[in-house]
Amino acid sequence: MAQASTWQRLSRNGAVRFGASVLLVLVLVALAAPWLGTVDPAAMDASHIYAPAGTRAPFAMADGSSVPHALLMGGDSLGRDIWSRVVYGTRVSLLVGLFTAIVALALGVVAGTIAGYFRRADAILMRFMDGLMAIPAILLAIALVAALGAKVWTVVVAIAIPEVPRVTRLVRSLVLTLREEPFVEAARALATPTPVILVRHILPNAMAPMIVQGTFIMASAVLTEAILSFLGLGLPPDVPTWGNIMAEGRIAFSQYPGAVLWPALFLVPTVLAVNLLGDGLRDVLDPKFAKR
Amino acid sequence: MSSASTSPMVLRIDALQVALPSGGDRGFAVDGVSLQIAAGQTLCVVGESGSGKSVMATSVMGLLARELRVQGGRIELNGESLLDASPKRLRDLRGKAMGMVFQEPMTALNPVMTCGDQVDELLAEHTDWPAAQRRAEILRVFERVHLPDPERMLRSYPHQLSGGQRQRIVIAMAVILKPALIICDEPTTALDVTTQKEILGLIEELQREQGSAVLFITHDMGVVSEIADQVIVMHQGRCVETGARDDVLLRPQADYTRMLLAAVPGMVPPAPRLIADTPPRLRGDAVCKTYLSRDWMGRTRETHALQDASLALRGGETVGVVGESGSGKSTFARCLIRLIDPTAGKIFWDTDEVATRSESKLRPLRNRVQVVFQDPNRSLNPRRTVGQSIVEGAINFGMASDAAHAMARKLMEQVRLPVEALARYPSQFSGGQRQRLAIARALACQPEVLVADEAVSALDVSVQAQILKLLREIQGELGLGLLFITHDLRVAAQLCDRVIVMRQGRIVEEGPTGALYANPAHDYTRRLLQSAPGFAAHAPA
Questions:
Q1: B156 pLDDT higher than 80
Q2: Fewest C-beta atoms under 10 Å: which of A45, A127, B113, B466?
Q3: pTM of full prediction above 0.95
Q4: Which option is the CATH number for B284-533: 1.50.10.100, 3.40.50.150, 3.40.50.300, 3.90.1150.30?
Q5: What does the alpha-carbon distance between residue A172 and residue A168 come to, in Å, rounded to a whole number?
């Protein structure tokens, strides 16, 4: 039977389409942040403290100059423009999400491949991963940020490391199945060196589930970053992240809920879109779900 | 067997058309097939994979996959139209009026329910008998299908039974309510020949006793010759030929039927060839493989997968290793190519002893012995082009990339495939073509010995015949030693100079093919030869 190509099947899947479109819009927002009617997200203007959403007034910059500005989402307790902070926060969230997924996948693929292909390494590596899994992810991340200091890359590493055991397990199970495949045995009979077998024959065939897992990690990383920031344990409070904006707005939530709700309005669709994309990818790429 | 043309028709199918989803290579899975079966008769539907024979059976049961749609025609069971029946009525009829026996008994049974409970569920659904009566009935039917110790079977889970016993449970479920129609979809394909023989006998016996009509789907002409009254040959969804068994098998009218019959390998080996007496290219001396497993108490258990197996294979010679599943024939082959490490014994590739060599010391010698696996769908990396797969070995052994690609083009000619195929991916080829590609990949290393591990078992007979011919031609051209592992005695008869018979990890008998088939010395060999389907039909008159 004529099989539609993977791209065609992906583009036909509703979840993939919706998730990818929302993500695309967010990426465009992040890239175009300076041109979307924003000011410096760190700039404070005392006249805009708790300004209501939609206020049109000049914004006094740090150097004393003043620019005409519309505070689409109002101002926060320090007189910063929430819209600007939310838009620039998109950059941080997407970057943290993406790099966390990449770091977690990279570490997990290396560990999982070794554990799956080399019997001797298996027991040691996997018991270590079991140990890591025994520590609650958020606590481990908090401890790591506390130990390493709060910078973007430390936050990425701190969120990625608790995800590594799960990726390792997944990759290990894939490698365990694939190493018994006749084409891998044929490669052994063809005297293909072991590292080449791993890179050429095993990993490319494990790609689809890994990509799917990567999207789920990205979604949870965006959330975890927001949680860390909200708890005051993530990036420094002056860095515009959705979690930081919410944390700062929490104090006056009952009078001025905007500072909490506006970033949430971005956070929720982001996580939803990435998860939907992952679900869709799994439906299309994973043969176990192909028949539905 | 055949009689009673006056008896009423149990199943009548009239110009059945089942549409395939658009975008397929043809519009209909089943295209205008008509047939009828009288009570007490067996109709065999024969065809290669993709002929639509299974789709027809599932449309009778009302179990068509969602993408498939019946577009025209009628199906009548005892005069009642099945295509107009409500889902509830169909559910009622299944089990009661028609029973089905599936190909793979392990997946047809629920692994977490005891066999007794599974049959009981069926009875509870379709009858109002009290529990005690149901239980008595189950025991009776278990006895009828010759299950040993029915009481124990009742409490057993499917994984605790052998393949043959599982299929007997499935048959018991199909016949317990004495349905008018039994549909068997390749019920013996997953079983060993000796078990197949018993199951075929059982189906025939039950049919005679209950007077059911049997719709039997198979790809095996040998099976057809044993059990059919009527035969219908299908090709690409159409009925090519239909008639009484002897008419179709002995006086086929359609070209396609003739081709199918000609492709069935016979049990009579060709005249022996003269093999030059050269030193062996591949030799195994008392090779053993023992698996150790530890149970939860820490006690070790030894499984002797292979014990003291020896063979010597010369250039230009074909040696067959035959046996049923679990006989150790594949373990033997995989030890000889050092895909697994033997526990004891010596293995020689040419004059180099390799049984205990480490992988890195083995690698420079690996070009000497190459392998072709059973499943053509899984033996090529789906993410690499055919060309990349074929040159991999040659480049590993130090050939320049240009030279390797030039050789790949020559090899494509040798395995009768177009050169353009090198740029495509394995998914674009059929099973038979992929097996050719796997052979080309093995040949690219310029081996001295080719090990074929059930290399034609997953293929249709016509394709099988082509691959066997190709192997023979290549062997003639290159003077390869060929080690051929198979469970099919007919294939071994056609291809092999010598045959080794294995059972339970040991070699029970070996000898020149002609002599061994004519005068089997060992009981087990004799049993194996007698169980091969179509033995009588294809023996010389």
A1: yes
A2: A127
A3: no
A4: 3.40.50.300
A5: 6
Q: Is A6-60+68-289 assigned to CATH 1.10.10.10?
A: no
Does A195 contact chain B (CB < 8 Å)? no
Question: What pLDDT is stored for residue B209 in this prediction?
Answer: 87
Q: In the beta sheet, which residues pair with residue B100?
A: B183
Does A181 lie at the interface with B, CB-CB under 8 angstroms? yes
**What is the pLDDT at residue B7?**
59
pLDDT at A259 over 90: no
CA B158 from centroid of its chain's CA atoms = 21
CA-wise closest residue to B510 among B189, B278, B284, B348? B284
Closest CA to A242 of A88, A19, A48: A88
pLDDT band for A287, please (50, 70, 90 cuts).
low
- A2 at the B interface (CB within 8 A)? yes
Query: Residue B198: pLDDT above 60?
Result: yes
What Å distances lie between residue B374 and A251, A278, A288, CA to CA? 69, 35, 23
Q: In what order do the strands lie in the sheet with B230-235?
A: B98-101, B181-185, B213-218, B42-46, B230-235, B238-244
| String of DSSP letters for B164-209 | HHHHHHHHHHHHTT--SEEEEESTTTTS-HHHHHHHHHHHHHHHHH
Separation in Å, CA B283 to CA A22, B287, B312: 64, 10, 4
Task: Return the pLDDT at A52.
Answer: 83
How many whole angstroms separate alpha carbon B58 and alpha carbon B45?
Answer: 13
Q: Is B203 on the interface with A (CB under 8 A)?
A: no
- B chain contacts of residue A205, beta-carbon cutoff 8 Å: 381-383
User: How many Cα atoms are found within 13 Å in the side-chain-facing hemisphere of A239?
Assistant: 20
pLDDT of residue A187: 94
B-chain CB neighbours of A204 within 8 Å are 381, 383-384
Residues 6+ apart with CB under 8 A from A279: A15, A19
Please say if the pLDDT value at position A228 is more than 50.
Answer: yes
User: Letter for the amino acid at B179?
Assistant: P
Q: Do A186 and B396 touch (CB under 8 A)?
A: no
Compare CB distances from A186 to B23, B25, B441 and report the shortest one's residue.
B441
Supply B227's token pair: 């059990």
B24 at the A interface (CB within 8 A)? yes
Q: Where are the beta strands (DSSP E) in B254-343?
A: 282-294, 300-313, 318-322
Q: Which chain B residues are closer than 8 Å to A193 by Cβ?
A: 363, 396
**A42-75 pLDDT, tens per residue?**
888 888 888 888 888 888 877 777 888 888 888 8
Q: Report the C-alpha gap between B473 and B479 in whole angstroms.
A: 10
**pLDDT band at residue A288 under the 50/70/90 scheme:** low
Q: In chain A, where are the structural domains located? A: 6-60+68-289
Contact list, A200 vs chain B (CB under 8 Å): 381, 384
Q: How far does the CA of residue A200 sit from the closest CA of chain B (Å)?
A: 9
Residues of B in contact with A191 (CB under 8 A): 362-364, 366-367, 393, 396-397, 445
Of B275, B270, B345, the residue nearest B311 (C-alpha): B345
